[in-house]
Fold these 2 entries.
Entry 1:
Amino acid sequence: MRALVGLVGTALRASPWVVAGFVVFQLASVFTSLAQPALNAAIIDDGILRGDVGTIKVVGLLMVAVAVVNLAVSLGATYLASHLSASSARDLRGRVNSRIGMFTDQQVARLGLSSLLTRSTGDVGQIQGFLFIFLTVVVTAPLMLFGALVLSLSQAWQMAPVIFVAGLVLVALVGVLVRRIVPWAARLQRRLDTINRVLREQLRGIPVIRTFRQEARERARFAVENDELTDVALRLGRTQVLLLPTVTVVSNLAGVAVAALGAIFVDRGQMQIGQIAAAVGYLGQILLAVSLLTVIAGVIPRAVTSADRIAEVLVTEVLDSGDAEAGVTSSAPAVVFDAVSVGFPGADAPAVDAISLTCAAGTVTGLLGGTGSGKSTLLSLPLRFADPDSGVVRWDGTDVTGLAPAWVRARTAFVGQGATLVTGTIADNLRIGRPDATDEQLWKALEVAAARDFVEARPEGLDARVAQEGRNFSGGQRQRLALARAVLRRPALYVLDDPFSALDVDTEREVIANLRRAHPEATVLIAAQRVSSVRHADAIGVLEDGRLVAVGTDETLRTDSEIYREIAYAQAVTDA
Ligand SMILES: Nc1ncnc2c1ncn2[C@@H]1O[C@H](COP(=O)(O)OP(=O)(O)OP(=O)(O)O)[C@@H](O)[C@H]1O
Ligand SMILES: [Mg+2]
């Protein structure tokens, strides 16, 4: 509840003028609505019953004018409420999104990727919807309830018992319905989460599903989730549709009671016909206000759930900006891992287990290890994509957790395992590394990455289009473009996570030699599964199950490390 109040408060504070305008419109709307039944009573009692055409005309015109004003201010209020809720949803999405962007890998793993996706879209949508309902109901309903009660009693106090009983009955009935709706609404949200996850997995895994002939199984899995979702939605819908008829039936029955009771009073000469009409009108408004208030009580739980889920993202502590530059001077840093361990939530063993390794300034350090041995996790530390659970990573002797992530990253070029490319042109992709680079610099970087040939082969050259995720390039071409982007940056530190896995050994050798020649002063960390990628490194660390099992050069490891020999032998590069 605190989270929801906080989000609503932030939304209201963000645009005080819109809120003020909204309140003015909303007040005008309530007052004009309240005026109608009184005018109606006047036109009947003073005009129609007395046959006074003049009064009928005047009051009638007044009623038309009030109705027109009511329409205009109601439209204005709805417009401002939509505007306010949509723009605060935009701000909230922005906040959630930028916060997620600062998460470490462990934080993403803890909250779950799919869930983060739903939180920044679906849950924000819930808050947007709630804000709109809250705005339109919370000002209007209590005012209308109070005003209509006062006016109906002043017009026809004899009707008080009917109003009271009808109000109680309505609260009871709508309350029962809302109580049934709330748990199903929460269940619906969870079902949406699940079906999103299944759908995501299936869309991402289409090739795998097809090669392993899992279509039928996946179809069945989706059908189950789909049926469950439908079932929950139907149950929810069946209860929800009862709300409006309940309000209508109670209002109409109460209207009948007022008319019947009124007839008796009119017969006795204690009331006028117009007063009955006014009482019926106010009764409708009272019951409408009551049911709106009950309904908002029903949407609160769902909004609270969403607000809590959003707040969980917003309060997650992200890397503080640290003490930029403190103590760091040299251009190419020495990177030291000092007994670092990293675990992921839900895993039994740490992904990186007490690793100590020194990567001297201006040297190439290779990390060799099979899949899952912890290479990527270790490489995520100097860039602060993750912080170690224990141990320290030093950048030229300074603990990186004391350095601003932005400062560290600005001096580093990272090439990830996925060789991420974005939609746009080749030049767009390369200039991510250095926005002001000239075409000549781009070509040079491509040359270092042995990518010049295939870019030249495209008629548009640097302006060749890159499709989503770079799918119109081969895996090896993507890797070379990603490397060229890194080269363009002229970083002090290269962090290369298996960057050559899709290259043949000859191209790989060429690229490594080019890179060294182009930036002899840079410090390079390179992880790989293949011996050929690291054998020319100044130092090689061999990883197994998150532990560092051997350190040396290609030469020393071949004599000292059985594991290294085994890997090298298996990859048949012993005499290459
Ligand atoms: N985001 C994550 N959430 C949960 N566990 C993770 C995550 N990232 C890595 N791990 C776990 O950490 C261990 C080491 O993974 P890591 O990606 O560092 O291995 P790797 O050596 O890079 O493997 P590969 O050569 O396949 O890329 C694995 O057991 C993996 O399951
Ligand atoms: Mg990896």
Note: Residues 323-411+492-508+515-576 form a domain with the Rossmann fold fold (CATH 3.40.50.300).
Entry 2:
Amino acid sequence: MPPAASPPTLVWFRDDLRLADNPALTAAAGGDGPIVAVYVLDEESPGLRPLGGAARWWLAGSLRALATDLRARGVPLVLRRGPAAQRISELVEEVGAAEVVWNRRYDPAAAAVDDTVADVLAARGVGVATFQAALLVEPAQMRTKTGGPYGVFTPFLRALLALPEPRFPLPAPKAVRSLAGVPSDRLEDWDLEPTAPDWAAGFRSVWRPGEAGAGDRLTAFLDEGLKGYATLRDRPDRTSTSRLSPHLRFGEISPFQVFHAARHAREAGRGGTTGQDVDKFVAELVWREFAYHLLAQNPRLATANHQPRFDAFPWRSDASALHAWQRGRTGYPIVDAGMRELWTTGWMHNRVRMVVASFLVKHLLIDWREGERWFWDTLVDADPANNAASWQWVAGSGADAAPYFRIFNPVLQGEKFDPDGAYVKHWIPALRRLGAQHVHRPFDTPPLELAAAGVTLGRDYPAPLVDHKVARERALAALATIKT
Ligand SMILES: Cc1cc2nc3c(=O)[nH]c(=O)nc-3n(C[C@H](O)[C@H](O)[C@H](O)COP(=O)(O)OP(=O)(O)OC[C@H]3O[C@@H](n4cnc5c(N)ncnc54)[C@H](O)[C@@H]3O)c2cc1C
């Protein structure tokens, strides 16, 4: 049969909004028939968690970029909205597709949707082919010596690194045949982006969603950030990490691409990068793998304590303290700077994420799920596995979690990781005239020094919501009630 007469293959894009290293797209492009590229905004299938506001903003930009990149290859991106099983089978019918291909998802709720779609298609005699693209190693491949899943990071890391090296990334397909004239929703009609008020101005100034933006971000990191990563990655006052998280979250770049680029940077000695820097960076990528491994074991990772003893934890309900935390008004500068960075840019440095999360859970005794929900709504990289696993890790309720009794002192954390106060001063301009010795502890600063810096506590910057020592004792007492 001549190629033009071959039936189309549907390429179902999801959290893999890229052309390069996209095995599903590559497979379809290599077939005889034309392809139909589709994205389904599914907020209706049971169990799926709707995206938060910041992630919806990102998705809009990412889809726009994907549509542009596909169009440059002559392929329109078809947008449909609704339950995936219904929308995909309708489209198969409309275009007469013989096969649907996609890259696998590992969030159990999303994987269940994919299983349903596969069943519906199989029942109609439509072929399905799925591929590994989002994780270096699929959760089911990682098993301990006794055959169970891993619960502790270090052995997981060791075992993953002992496997054969992850495959090399695939190039973007050069020639792609496509089918024209397939009706599509208009992206603007999906209302993914804010209008009034437009809270995303700060996002636009720091981010460029899409595959090209991801590639540029990786290049900049390899040139300037990877060198020194092992020692500087905890410094929020430096551009010391890759900021690839939202790009990885939406699959605008794959972990295979990032892994091999980092390894290659070491071999090429790029920018003075050391083996230690690369090993540390790869270990962070493996934390992402580990989080998915945990989510695969526990679909309720975002809602249920991994350690059931935390079900009895005496969390406080305190709406005004929660609001102060959300808006960066706790009176602890490193916490407030982080929460303001999050609100303004949709992202926060990892060290600061740990400090603000610890503050909510331990100083304010507010349930980690409140924090997880706030992050879900405000992070551009809000990720079903990383967010839930990290919150449980900080709260002490997770697998291989930081022990609850280890309580960060937010002043000392600020002084250690933002020694000149540059990060705090950037996000809290009211404190910019305080010296480095005071900027992380305005409440401990002599009144004359505060006055000289133009700061009146309670007017320019809040007094602390809680006293660190008192809060620490209260948190330990709360923990004692659930000790086994
Ligand atoms: C309370 C809390 C909530 C978090 N929520 C999220 C989230 O929703 N989405 C998210 O991607 N990360 C989350 N993280 C993990 C981490 O903070 C971010 O991945 C990291 O800050 C992203 O910045 P980066 O890309 O510059 O990281 P880099 O240091 O450059 O690391 C490279 C990549 O490795 C992965 N990674 C790094 N650290 C971790 C980690 N601790 N756990 C899992 N993966 C990691 C990310 O994909 C990251 O992009 C959370 C951490 C905490 C403490």
Note: The mean pLDDT is 95.
